[in-house]
């Protein structure tokens, strides 16, 4: 009887050890899986084609700049060129490889709900199973008509409440990583702006760096001189970095324009402000362009988006 009890206890002991070892092995596999999932939030299949998967974000500056003559016409043409470039890219891909998206953002968010509803229609997502035949012409239609509707509503709203300004600095601080950067895609942010930034809720100063730039502020910087670049570098003038680690983001800024005819270097200074700012945050491919004829800018957009 003692032998039977001893044998049973011994058998139970070894079974328990084997079970514990199996559970630990499961836990180890589970931990390893979780670590792998944390490291990569997309499949190897998508990651290998990362540069072929476009994630285009368009940030519109709806400040008082949209009241400038022909500004709406120019911006609408620029936006349509982006849609055309996006479609050219989509046409070049096989249906099973589609993993591309494009959408529009504002900062601050417009108070008019209609603007937000229209911008929702501009969220285009191509994934496996989506009909290119249906959505390629639909993308052109949406991006050809909706921008004008947005601008008209923004101007109408501003007459009642005034223009809120452009808080691009805040967008980079609070939203750019969440909204514009995905690990499985080539991330491109296109900003339509005259280069000036101002919002009363985001006014910051750090020695000779600020979170804003207005025509009046620019006139007071003492840079209306041929050696403005040397002065800027010596005094470390520019925008305060709003973020860091944006090495997986490409940024194309379109529409930089001098609004002060008495300041011949203003446009160059604004472009330098933007370029230095984007580089300070780690943006890997910043490109700054002035306001120009839509036909000229279309070439810039195509080359940038299509990597030509």
By DSSP, the count of extended strands is: 9
Q: Please work out how many helical segments DSSP would assign.
A: 11
Oligomeric status of the shown chains? single chain
CATH class: Alpha Beta
Principal-axis shape equals globular
Mean pLDDT: 88
The total number of structural domains is 1
Q: How many angstroms separate the termini? A: 86 Å
The CATH architecture would be: 3-Layer(aba) Sandwich
- Helicity level: 40-55%
Low-confidence stretches: 1-40
- Quote the CATH topology: Rossmann fold
Rg computed from alpha carbons, rounded to a whole number of angstroms: 26 Å
Largest sheet entry = 6 strands, mixed
Secondary-structure element series: HHEHEHEHHHEEEHHEEHEH
Approximate strand percentage = 5-15%
Structural category: alpha/beta
Strand order of the largest sheet: 3-2-1-4-8-9
Protein name: VWFA domain-containing protein
Organism: Flavivirga jejuensis
Verbal overview:
This protein is of the alpha/beta class and about 300 residues long. It has a single domain, classed as Rossmann fold. Helices cover about 50% and strands about 15% of the residues. The strands form 2 sheets. It has a 6-stranded mixed sheet with strand order 3-2-1-4-8-9, sandwiched between helices. A 3-stranded mixed sheet has the order 5-6-7. Helix 3 packs parallel to helix 11. The radius of gyration is 26 Å and the shape is globular. Residues about 1-40 have low confidence and may be disordered. This is VWFA domain-containing protein. It comes from Flavivirga jejuensis.
